[in-house]
Design a protein that fits this description.
Elements: H1 2-10, H2 12-44, H3 49-98, H4 103-106, H5 109-122, H6 124-149, H7 153-177, H8 186-197, H9 199-204, H10 208-260, H11 269-279, H12 289-304, E1 325-332, E2 342-349, E3 354-358, H13 365-372, E4 380-385, E5 388-389, H14 395-400, E6 402-405, E7 414-415, H15 416-420, H16 429-438, E8 448-449, H17 458-471, E9 476-480, H18 488-501, E10 506-510, E11 522-527, E12 530-535, H19 537-543, H20 546-554
Parallel strand pairs: 3-10, 3-11, 6-9, 9-10
Antiparallel strand pairs: 1-2, 1-4, 4-5, 7-8, 11-12
Length: 555
């Protein structure tokens, strides 16, 4: 919760002003009803008319002050809350961007959806229902008790006892009995997300009904938890209300007794009763504070499961130009995996060098590319660019240098033009059409692209992604199997285009196809997560190692 308190404290100006306005609103509400009770009692004694006028004028003043301060308090408190939530959301999305490459290897999309919606939204209760109400209630009650003590110490003590009963004793009892629990919608959203994404496959294998039943049962369980929690909150509200009425009843009896024995002027009887009725309105919500605190703490814990810090990432690389990339004893072990994905990989890629990474499926080629891309950090060893460690670099600065085409590229709902301008939104249509021509994709810039490019073929997706790479001003190209869905002739032409475009740029290419590798500077051969061979095409063929065997089997 320290991180959350730090974020809340940034809005200290609005919070303090909201607190002041809230206390004023609470005190003027008490004063309004106290004045009303006193006016009723005073009017029964037929005082001079100007006394009634003065008391009535005070009623109007208190009424205006109460409304104005309450409005200002609500405005300031909600403005501070929305800014806090905005800050949390921005930091959350920054943390997602930092681990974007490994995002869906570490988190299910349903869990991310829950965190983005439920967890962040719940944190609004931390200030509005956890931090703010106890402070306002405590200050209002303290001032009210001090005021009441001038008329009757015993009545003041009863008020104080009622405050402790409603604000401390009753919430503690419910906490000890664990009657209030927080519902978790994550399982429902995870199952529903998978159901929607996999609907086509479920339909093909006649599993829609059975999977829908699973979602329905999870939804029922979640609805039951929500209902149970709401019932417990209502019970807390009911018990707290009953405790406040009991306190008021005791005050009525006690005040009446003091009036009967002459220890209290009857003129103040109605005033004290109305004070008690009013002041408890600020205390009853405190009974739910432990529940909302628990919810906020749980949500914050889930948010902090993603590293919000960038580990002193302050170094920028400056102008775009070729940079040397170096890896030293890099290893990576995925959580839950039986064996490392990479083991003791070391290499240096010189500025402008063309590297092809080959090897059997599962040998670690894509994982190595993701490390170069800085999608996630290695579990051992280090990566650096231009002799600067990755963990010191501003992530956006590094990604700005790189043009990337992965095996699966995302396409947004819109037009071809919209999806190309992701590379550089300053380009005109002529530049976009030129990139499409070089990528050999005969489409119009106004052609529609559906969500995730579902209306595009595999080859069209690869050529559209390649066109984006052509358009991005970058010093380093990282391509993972960029032309696997194309015919041999088109593949060869785009391979030639790729080499021509990267003449003065660094290139890292993952490929299963070994034809044309004579044109790259060096070849990295991966096997079982290790870099087992490096060299030019001619050198590797002379070594008669793994690359030679792979090439011989292809032929």
């Amino acid at each position: 919760m320290n991180e959350l308190m730090h974020i809340v404290w940034r809005e200290k100006k609005d919070i303090v002003l909201a607190l002041v306005c809230g206390v004023i609103a609470g005190l003027t509400a008490v004063a309004l009803f106290a004045q009303s009770g006193y006016l009723i009692s005073k009017a029964a004694l037929m005082p001079p008319f100007y006394i009634i006028l003065i008391l009535t004028a005070f009623l109007k003043v208190f009424g205006v002050m109460k409304s104005a301060s309450k409005y200002t308090e609500r405005y300031l408190s909600h403005r501070a809350t929305f800014r806090i939530l905005s800050d949390i959301r921005l930091r959350y999305f920054d943390s997602l961007a930092h681990i974007s490459g490994s995002l869906f290897q570490r988190y299910q999309s349903g869990a991310l959806l829950t965190t983005i919606t439920n967890d962040v939204t719940r944190l609004q209760n931390f200030f509005l229902r956890v931090v703010y109400p106890p402070l306002v209630a405590l200050l209002v009650f303290l001032c009210t008790i001090i005021f009441t003590a001038f008329f009757s110490v015993w009545v003041a003590l009863v008020l104080f006892g009622g405050f402790l009963l409603v604000a401390v004793v009753i919430p503690s009892i419910f906490i000890l009995k664990k009657q209030v629990t927080s519902e978790d919608s994550t399982p429902v959203k995870q199952e529903l997300t998978q159901f929607l994404f996999g609907f086509r496959e479920l339909k093909h294998y006649h599993l829609v009904d059975s999977r829908a039943d699973q979602v329905f049962h999870l939804s029922e369980d979640y609805a039951y938890d929500v209902e149970k929690k709401q019932h417990a909150l209502n019970m807390i509200q009911l018990v707290s209300q009953a405790a406040s009425y009991l306190t008021i009843f005791v005050i009525i009896v006690l005040s009446a007794y003091f009036v009967s024995v002459g220890a209290l002027d009857s003129l103040y009887l109605a005033m004290l009763i109305l004070i008690a009725l009013t002041v408890f309105e600020t205390v009853i919500p405190l009974a739910q504070v432990p529940h909302f605190y628990k919810e906020a703490a749980y949500s914050m814990e889930r948010l902090q499961a993603i590293d919000w810090e960038t580990n002193d990432r302050t170094i920028e690389l400056g102008h775009i130009k070729p940079y040397e990339i170096e890896a030293k004893q890099v290893s990576l072990h995925y959580d839950g995996a039986l064996k490392p994905a990479l083991r003791d990989v070391s290499f240096t890629i010189a500025p402008g060098e063309k590297i092809a990474i080959v090897g059997p499926s599962g040998s670690g080629k894509t994982t190595l590319l993701q490390l170069i891309l800085n999608s996630f950090a290695p579990t051992a060893g280090s990566l650096s660019i231009h002799q600067v460690p990755y963990q010191k670099l501003v992530p956006d600065c590094l990604w700005q240098l790189m043009a990337v085409q992965l095996q699966h590229n995302h396409f947004f709902s819109g037009t071809i033009r919209d999806n190309l301008r992701i590379a550089d939104d300053s380009l005109d249509d002529a530049a976009l059409e030129d990139a499409l021509a070089r990528a050999q994709l005969p489409v119009s810039l106004d052609d529609e692209v559906l969500e995730q490019g579902t209306n595009l073929s595999g080859g069209e997706k690869q050529r559209l992604a390649f066109a984006r790479v052509l358009l991005k001003p970058s010093a380093i190209w990282l391509l993972d199997e960029p032309f696997t869905s194309l015919d041999a002739e088109t593949e060869q032409e785009l391979f030639t285009e790729m080499l021509r475009e990267t003449k003065y740029k660094s290139l890292v290419l993952i490929t299963h196809k070994l034809d044309g590798l004579q044109h790259v500077d060096r070849i990295f051969v991966m096997q079982d997560g290790r870099l087992v061979e490096t060299g030019t095409y001619t050198e590797l063929m002379k070594q008669r190692g793994l690359f030679f065997e792979m090439k011989r089997l292809v032929v």
